[in-house]
Design a protein that fits this description.
alpha/beta, 6-stranded mixed beta sheet, Rossmann fold, 6 strands
Amino acid sequence: MSTLNRPTRHYDYVDDGGAIYVDSFATIRAESHLSHLPADAEKVAVRMVHACGQTDLTNDLLIHDGLVSAARGALQAGAPIITDATMVASGVTRARLPHDNDVLCFLRDDRVPGLAAAWGTTRSAAAVSLWEDRLEGAVVAFGNAPTALFHLLEMLIDGAPRPAAIIGTPVGFIGAAESKDALAGLAELRSELDIPFLTVRGRRGGSAMAASALNAIAQEQE
């Protein structure tokens, strides 16, 4: 193997990993509005901003007062994380999980295509019905598919087992904003379904946001 040499430096930039990390979070706190969020959710919001690079994200965050305590408590008790997308599952930092928790995504289950075709819906939505046996007390996260979030909400209204917390940040132009509005309004629709949640109003969202929220919840250390 040939000797590797660093290329000649032509640009002025910070390349100390530790400094980049510290300065990034300091910048986020300096530029983001955090005072309207629950105190224990501040680090969750900061990590989500870090994932997307948009400090105004916090203006659109809606976080239930009980979200962090409910989700973190569930994970500490060994509950699984269930997600709508493999990208969310892949983004979870396993070393941060407190109890070697399962991180599950059923999108590639062999039953999914048939269910989606039979029900006339997306595969992401159909996969959510396969969550039911693991849903009670789980931490669930949506980073991709609005149809999947709508599907879960409809299951819950029909009496499905309740998760401990719902992270709902599906991204997109069709149904994303509406699905997140439905999540935020679930308790108004059915008071007994006051499930702690986190969401981002509007079209913004994505797997990176969902995974970053899960990572911050799993371990308080920034």
